[in-house]
Design a protein that fits this description.
By secondary structure, the chain is an all-alpha fold. It has one domain (about 1-75). The chain has 5 helices and no strands. α2 runs antiparallel to α3 and α2 packs across α5 (about 55-75).
């Protein structure tokens, strides 16, 4: 339920898509890891809107990244908030 609610927040869905895109274009492994970190804006959005704690935010963020990477690899031309 938390994942579904999080992907319906446009800022969070956009951040996940841009994190995956940034990781795929990053030149070094360190840059890839850094681009996949959960942004402060996303943390604040999930904490305020969904009342999630830090460990749950991390779990939801990782699931969002997985979904964004999966959608990007299957259908790179269809990246909308509805599909993430």
């Amino acid at each position: 339920m938390d994942l579904r609610a999080a992907r319906d927040i446009p800022e969070v869905a956009d951040a996940a898509r841009s994190a995956v895109a940034g990781a795929q274009s990053a030149p070094t492994p360190e840059a890839r890891r850094a681009s996949l970190d959960c942004p402060a804006l996303v943390t604040a959005q999930l904490r305020e809107r969904l009342r999630l704690c830090k460990p749950q935010i991390r779990i939801v963020w990782e699931a969002l990244l997985f979904l964004a990477a999966r959608v990007r690899s299957i259908c790179p031309h269809v990246l909308t908030a509805a599909n993430l």
